[in-house]
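lol forgot to send this yesterday, sorry. struct tokens for the thing we talked abt
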């Protein structure tokens, strides 16, 4: 188990052992499945992303600082020191629609406010969310209903 705040800022490493590709900026969550769907990171100064859009092939990225995303199934391991990708992990240049859970407003499906998200615990092997920690207490991950621009909606009680 890890927290989103522990993953943010970790280096993203290619499976080939090359230098860091970048630094994790956030994790994208699929509310329907209750799991992390993508790891989002900002290109590093020495990150390598091939012309084919695959990590660890040819090509060099300079200090562009572009945000990139890789699907969770491209992640090999997540540990306290780094996020390591599988060989030839697909890298998406244009990030998909994304709402960062950290700092997001929380509403119960009854319309009552339930604070903001401080952190999220998840299983690093399966990507399943375990719990959300809000300014008003813990919310079991199974209560997530929807996520949009305005708020994260969770089932009451």
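and heres what i got for the seq, position by position
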């Amino acid at each position: 188990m890890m927290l989103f705040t522990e993953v943010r800022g970790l280096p993203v490493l290619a499976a080939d052992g090359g230098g860091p590709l970048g630094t994790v900026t956030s994790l994208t969550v699929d509310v329907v499945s209750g799991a992390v769907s993508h790891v989002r990171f900002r290109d590093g100064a020495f990150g390598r992303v091939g012309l084919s859009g695959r990590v660890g092939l040819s090509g060099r990225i300079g200090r562009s600082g572009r945000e990139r995303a890789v699907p969770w199934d491209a992640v090999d391991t997540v540990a306290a020191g780094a996020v390591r990708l599988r060989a030839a992990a697909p890298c998406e240049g244009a990030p998909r629609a994304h709402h960062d859970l950290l700092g997001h407003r929380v509403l119960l499906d009854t319309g009552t406010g339930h604070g903001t998200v401080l952190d999220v615990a998840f299983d690093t092997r399966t990507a399943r969310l375990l719990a959300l920690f809000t300014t008003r207490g813990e919310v079991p991950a199974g209560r997530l209903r929807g996520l949009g621009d305005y708020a994260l909606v969770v089932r009451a009680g």
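The two ends are 24 Å apart (CA to CA). anyway ping me if u want another try
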